[in-house]
Amino acid sequence: MALLTQRRYFLTLLAFAGAALATMAITPRFGSEPLAMSAAFIEWLTHPRQEWSIAALTLDLRLVRLAVAFLAGGTLAVCGVAFQAMLRNPLATPYTLGVASGGALGAYCAFMFAGSSLMLTLAPDDMAAALTQYLRQGASLAGAFSTMAVIYLLARSRSGISTMGLLLAGVTLSLICSAAMMFLRYMSTPDMLMRMERWLMGGVDAGSWGELTPMLPVLLPSMALLLIQARRYDQLVFGEELAAGRGVNVARLQKITFFCGSMATAAVVAVVGPIGFIGLIVPHALRRIVGPEHRLLLPCAALGGGAFLAICDTIARITPAELPVGVLTAMLGGPFFLFLLIRSRAQWGARMQ
Amino acid sequence: MLLETDGAGYAYQPGRWALRGITARFEPGTMTGIIGPNGSGKSTLLRLLASIRTPSEGAIRLNGKRLREHKSDALARSIAFMPQTVTPVCAYSCEETVALGRYPHLGAMGFLTQNDLKQIREAMLQTDTLEFAERPLDDLSGGERQRVLLASVLAQQAEFLLLDEPTSALDLHHQHEVMTLLRQFSRNGQCVIVVAHDLNLAAQFCDRLLLLSAGRLEAAGAAEEVLTAERLSPVYGGQIAVLEHPLTRQPLITVLSKKTYE
Ligand SMILES: Nc1ncnc2c1ncn2[C@@H]1O[C@H](COP(=O)(O)OP(=O)(O)OP(=O)(O)O)[C@@H](O)[C@H]1O
Ligand SMILES: [Mg+2]
User: In B104-221, which ranges are continuous DSSP H helix?
Assistant: First the structure.
C-alpha cells in the first residue's frame, strides 16, 4: 500500500462512517414482522414509552439489538487488532488470552445458581428475569476479571509483561476453565444445560437498554484508550526493541493493551456471550482494504466490525429458524478464513516463480 | 551533544552480569566500532546506550543528564537504534516501514509532511532500496530487508546512530557501501556506534574500536592499538594472526587454523 496521506485517511474514515450509518438506518427494517419505519421512528422519538404502539415497541427492540450488535462487533474487532499487534501474531483473537473462557465459566456458575436458587424461582417472573440477567452478567465479568488477574500475575516479568508468558498463561487458563465448565455441565439439570448451551452460542438479542448500560462505563474508556495507542502498535509489531528505540514505552503499551482489551472483551462477552470469529475476520479483511497502519485500521475496525455484526445479526434474525448470531459468524468465519489461506497460498506460488 | 557511560553494568538476572564497569565517551563526528566474541555484551551495551534497558549499576548520560531523565520522544530524536534482530512483518510495504522511522518527529495524527517524505526518500536512496518501495517487506531477501530497516533507522534523523550488526546479512559490495555511508555521516557531525563481527571491516572504517570480552571492556583505542594478536587470541580463543594489509597498511586479521600453520 502506498504511504498514507491525509486525504486517503479522511476519505477512508468517511466511507466507513457512511457505511456504518447506512447499516444503522437499514437493518432495523428487517425482522420477522414488517415495520413502517418512519412512522414508528417518529413515535419512538417523540412519545413516552407508555404510549408506544406495537410498531414503536418492535422498533425499540430492534434498536437495542442494533446497538448491542454494533458495540459488540466494534469492540471485538478493535480488541482483535490490538491483541494481534501486541502478541505479534496474526492468528490472535480477543479470546486468545483467556478472558472469554473466564467469562463463560462465570456465566455458567450463574446459570447453576439461578437454576437451583429458591429465591429466584419464587420471585415474580419479570423480577426473576432481571435478577438472573444481572447475576449472569456480574458473574461473567467476575470470572473474566479473575482470569485476567491470574494471567497477568503469571506473565508479569521484570521488564513488563512477557508476550510468550501471556500466550501460555492464556491458553492454560482457558483449558482449566473449560474443564471446570465441563464439570458444571455434568452437574446441571437439562433445563440449565440448555440455557448454558444457548448462551455459549452468543446472541445479541438483548431485551432492553438496561442490559447494555452497565457495560458502557467499562467498554467506552477501554476502547478509547486502545484507539489512541494506534501509532505505537505500528512500532511494536516490528519488535519490542525497535519500538523502545523509537521512544515507545513498551511495558506500558502492553499493560494498557492487555487490561483494556481484556476488560472490553469481558464486558462484551458478559452481554452477548462468546461470539466467535469477529475479532479474527474483521481485522484481516480490513488490513487488505485499508492497509496495515493502525491509525486507520483501528477506527475502521470499530466501524466495520460493528456494521458487520449488525448485518450478521439481521441475516440471522430473518432466517426461518432465527439463528443465534454466533452460529452465523462461525459459519461465515471458517470459510472466510479458508479463503484467506488459499489466496495467500496463491500469492506464495506466484512469488516463487 | 555527548553520550557517555560511567561504570555502566547490566545483569539480565540478578547477580549474573552480562556487562560490567564500562566507561566510555561517544562524541559527534566519530565512528566507534564495538567488537568482541558472541555473548561478550555488545548488544547489551548498545541496549543500554539506546535506553532500551536501564543500567543495573553506573550511569549513562546524554549531555550530562541520565538517559531516563530525558523525555522518551526527545531521546528518540537524538538516538536511533537498530536492533540485531527485527520481526519481519509482511503486511507493511518497504516504504511504509521506512516511514515508521519518522515516528518521533511526527505530530499526534502522524501525517507526513513534505520534509518527512524527502527524508524517507533520501534514506532509501542512501541504502539503495528505492526499487523495493512498494513491495511487502516480507518478500525481500535477508540482506535487502536489513537495508530497508537501516533506511528506517536513518529516516529517524538522529544525531547518534546505534547499529547492532547492520551489515551482518549484506553482500561484500553493500557492506562497503553501508560502512562508507556511515563514515560519511560521522564526518558530517553525527556519532556512529556500530557493532561488527567483521574485524577487518571495523578496522577499515571506524576511528576507534571497543573490544569487549565477557562483559568487560578489554581495550579501547585506534584499530592498530586494539587489534593485536596478543590481545585478540585470548579473547576470541584460537590462534589469531594480525598482518599488515599490503596496500592500505591497515591491520588485516585472519584466524590460523591448525591446518594453516602446519
Ligand atoms: N534477554 C536476555 N535475557 C537473559 N540473558 C541475556 C539476554 N540477552 C543477552 N543475555 C546474555 O547476556 C550476555 C551478553 O549478551 P549480548 O547479546 O550482549 O551478546 P553479544 O555480544 O551481542 O553477542 P552476539 O555476538 O552473539 O550478538 C550473554 O551471556 C547472553 O546470554
Ligand atoms: Mg549481539
Answer: 114-126, 142-154, 172-187, 199-205
Of residues B227, B216, B192, the one with CA closest to residue B206: B192
Query: Do B242 and B130 belong to one domain?
Result: no
Cβ neighbours around A301 below 10 Å, total: 33
B40 and B136, same domain (yes or no): yes
Q: Is the per-residue pLDDT at B29 higher than 90?
A: yes
Domain of B152 in residue numbering reads as 3-227
- Which residues have C-beta within 8 Å of that of residue A313, sequence separation ≥ 6? A27, A65, A66, A69, A204, A325, A328
**B111 and B24 within one domain:** yes
Q: How far is the CA of B38 from the centre of ligand 1 (A)?
A: 8
Tell if the pTM clears 0.90, that is, is over it: yes
List all residues whose CB is within 6 A of at least one atom of ligand 1: B 12, 18, 36, 38-44, 84
The answer, yes or no, to whether residue B259 has pLDDT greater than 90, is no
C-alpha cell at B29: 563526528
- Helix, strand or coil, per DSSP, at residue B191: strand
Residue B233 identity:
S
Name the residue of chain B whose CA is nearest to A296's CA: B109
Looking at ligand 1, which residue's alpha carbon is closest to its atom 3?
A: B12
The protein residue with its alpha carbon nearest to ligand 1, atom 29, reads: B39
Q: What is the rounded CA–CA span in Å between residue B146 and residue B80?
A: 15
Task: Name the grid cell of B237.
Answer: 580463543
Give residue A351's pLDDT band: very low, low, confident or very high (50, 70, 90). Answer: very low
DSSP string for A223-269: HHHHHTTHHHHHHHTT-HHHHHHTT--HHHHHHHHHHHHHHHHHHHH
Domain ranges of chain A: 36-80+93-352
Reported confidence tier of residue A91, pLDDT bands at 50, 70, 90:
confident
For residue B128, how far is its CA from the centre of ligand 2 (angstroms)?
A: 25
- Enter the C-alpha cell of residue A204: 445479541
DSSP per residue, B88-100: --TTSBHHHHHHG
Pairing, β B3-13 against β B57-62:
antiparallel
What is chain A's mean pLDDT, rounded?
89
Q: ipTM > 0.85?
A: yes
Grid cell at residue B151 = 533506511
Residues B186 and B204 in one domain: yes
Residues B203 and B246 in one domain: no
- Output the pLDDT for position A347: 58
Task: Supply the pLDDT for residue A32.
Answer: 78
CB pairs under 8 A between A and B: 90
State the Cα angle at A123 between A122 and A127, rounded to 5°.
155
- A237:B89 CB<8 A: yes
pLDDT digits (tens, 9 = 90+) for B163-218: 999 999 999 999 999 999 999 999 999 999 999 999 999 999 999 999 999 999 99
Domain A36-80+93-352 has CATH 3.40.50.300: no
pLDDT in tens, B123-146: 999 999 999 999 998 888 889 999
B79-82 and B160-164 as β-strands: parallel, antiparallel, unpaired?
Answer: parallel
Residue with cell 516511514: B99
Is the pLDDT reported for residue A333 higher than 90?
no
CA B214 / ligand 2 centre spacing (Å):
13
The partner residue sitting opposite A239, judged by closest CB among B86, B96, B112, is B86
Is residue B103 scored above 60 in pLDDT? yes
